[in-house]
Amino acid sequence: MDNVFWWNGKAVVPQEGSFITLNPDKTITVPDSPIIPFVVGDGIGPEITPEMIKVVNAAVEKQYKGSKKIYWVEVLAGDKAEEKGLDRMPSETLELLKQSVVSIKGPLGTPVGKGGKSLNAVLRQSMDFYSAIRPVYYMGQPSPIPNPERVDVTVFRENSDDVYMAIEYMAGTEGARKVREFFIKEMGVSEGAIPEDAGVTVKPMSEFKTKRHVRKAFRYALENGKKHIAIAGKGNIMKATEGAFLNWAFEVADEEEFKRKIIKEGEPGEGQARIYKVITDQMLMQLVLKPEYYDVIITQNLNGDYISDLASALVGGPGFVPSGNIGDGYALFESTHGTANDIAGKGLANPLSIILSGAMMLEYLGWKEASQLIYTAVKDVISQKKGTPDIASGFRKQGFDATELSTTQFGDEIANRIKNL
Ligand code: NAI
User: Fold this and answer.
1) Is 164 a known active-site residue?
2) Based on CB atoms within 10 Å of each CB, which residue in 34, 107, 137, 142 is the most buried?
3) What is the pLDDT of residues 121-170, one digit of tens each?
4) Within the chain, what is the greatest distance between any pair of CA atoms?
């Protein structure tokens, strides 16, 4: 592939490519030859990421016949960076990701016992990717529920607030003692509410962070014709945080941009969507029983973590679901599963999560026709009961004959299907 530039002592930025630019209003301008940095990732990353590049290239070539072309630039992170004697998240990588505005990555492992922040957390914070977006839809793969075609829901998880801020005081430490003393002495909290042997985690939730996230989700719903928007949280219990989140979300609906478009009552008409408040636990149950009720779910960081994994399970697990981390223009797309070290290097990995993340990235660039080619080709190949062992064995359990393909063969099938569409 002549448009893939592998790391060679440093990131190689080709002359032919141009950087995507971030405009003052936080929209992006995409040239016909955008430079897109990629991180192959750890574990199965080196197997699945090249398949994504192959498939995305095939779709762009098929649709635009050379008038548009991505220039892929490898940047290092994780194990591969460490092998070259660099930090696990080199500053060169962060700089190029930022300069390029839009990028994509495979899974990165968090070495156990080595300390340090998760690389994913470093990435999310460095470009303030405050919304994690996971569209969950069915493409014909084996699924654990009846009629999985009912599932078509996009989870918007707030990514910069909540208990993930890691403001934590372990039981028995000076920090925990001070926090306890403050609450009992200054705030009138009863001694039994924070026992002496308790650890404490702080759960901040801000109006600014909530509202910017909600605005992004509302725009997505309106642009994509999604009619029902559930705002999920446990506001009945955590009034100052999740309760406030629900109220702030409703306030955003009153803003000039959304008035008359995001409605609170009645059936949404053309160009409209309706918002509902839902309680997370009850919603999780409904999501399994009646997934067709949900088009968009807007939620906080911790709830979003649970909800997006449960939603993914409805269509067979995170291996079938893409994701995007999006801030004010900056976007990083990534596979949703981990490094799957148990199967790494064996050609068994399912590359769909990162391939569909590549399709999601094309949509973000405004190259929607090319992303549609990927969706069509993936559905076509799966409908022939062909796929990596996880897919083939799922079909066999359902009593079908299935063809088992390696990671590369599966990528080839999808790319060839695109060429023949
Ligand atoms: P995992 O997702 O790597 O593996 C869980 C199970 O799912 C394993 O049996 C694995 O073989 C299977 N699996 C995962 N992806 C698959 C694929 N594409 N095809 C076929 N089978 C697949 O989760 P685990 O073991 O909890 O995490 C391993 C490492 O990955 C950890 O270091 C974790 O921190 C990291 N991780 C990174 C993420 C990221 O970069 N966004 C997300 C989740 C975990």
Assistant:
1) yes
2) 107
3) 788 888 999 999 999 999 999 999 999 999 999 999 999 999 988 899 99
4) 72
Q: Which of 339, 342, 352, 354 to mutate to test the pocket of ligand 1 (most atoms within 8 A of CB)?
A: 339
The predicted-structure confidence for 322-363, as pLDDT tens digits, reads as follows: 999 999 999 999 999 999 999 999 999 999 999 999 999 999
**Domains defined along the chain, listed by start:** 1-132+348-421 (3.40.718.10), 168-201 (no CATH)
Q: Is the CB of 337 under 6 A from ligand 1?
A: yes
What is the β-pairing status of strands 262-263 and 273-279? parallel
pTM for the full model? 0.95
Q: How far apart are CA 366 and CA 188, in angstroms?
A: 54
Mean pLDDT of 71-96: 96
CA distances from 207 to 211, 232, 260, 299, 330 (A): 6, 16, 22, 13, 21
Q: What is the pLDDT of residue 317?
A: 86
Query: Ligand 1: distance of its center to the CA of 319 in Å?
Result: 9
Q: Is 220 a catalytic residue?
A: no
For 386, phi and psi rounded to 5 degrees?
-115, 140
